[in-house]
Design a protein that fits this description.
This protein has one domain. The relative contact order is 0.18. The radius of gyration is 28 Å and the shape is rod-shaped. 34% of the residues lie in helices and 20% in strands. It is of the alpha+beta class. The chain is built from four helices and six strands, in the order H-H-H-E-E-E-E-E-H-E. The mean pLDDT is 84. Helix 2 packs antiparallel against helix 3.
Length: 192
Amino acid sequence: MTTTTPINKILHCKKGQSLIELTLITPLMLLLAYGVVEVGSVISTYLTITHTTREGANLTSRGTAPNTALDAIIAAAAPTIQNSNQAQWRIIYSRLVQKKNTPCNPSCTYIVDDNPLNPIPGQIIRGNFNQPSQLGNIGSTVTIPGVQDVGPFQTFHAIEVYYDYGPNVITFIGNNINHTFYERSIFTNVSN
């Protein structure tokens, strides 16, 4: 016959073990779940930016006025891009034309349209995020892979989108990614 002392009973009691395990594992599980949600948000934002550039360049290349096209893609990209968060994004429309009096030998030289007689500016910027066009300002010479194979007197429409991804709640995932997303699409003019 063995006698059990009160200390042995406490040491061998299993009633609270599950509760202690649950208490230890719950914060880790919540952190992992939030990380999955944040990764999904990053992917969704990147896909929105990519879609925005393609649709904007497509619309302008088909003859839609650039201001109308920019309004349409901003409306379609909500809630990622909207008027209430203009400090987080910038959309830049650029019209690329062949440089005047420069022969295409063997390839054409293109610039951001600087024609003052054109009623639509060669570059239109929306949003307040402080990032410059990677193509350049009005009058800048543009070098784009693939453009050298296009014949003379072509016009191209480019949409560049910058977005500063800042998660609402900072986590280890949000701090370890590049917060500035950039995407660009260039379409040849098909409206003529």
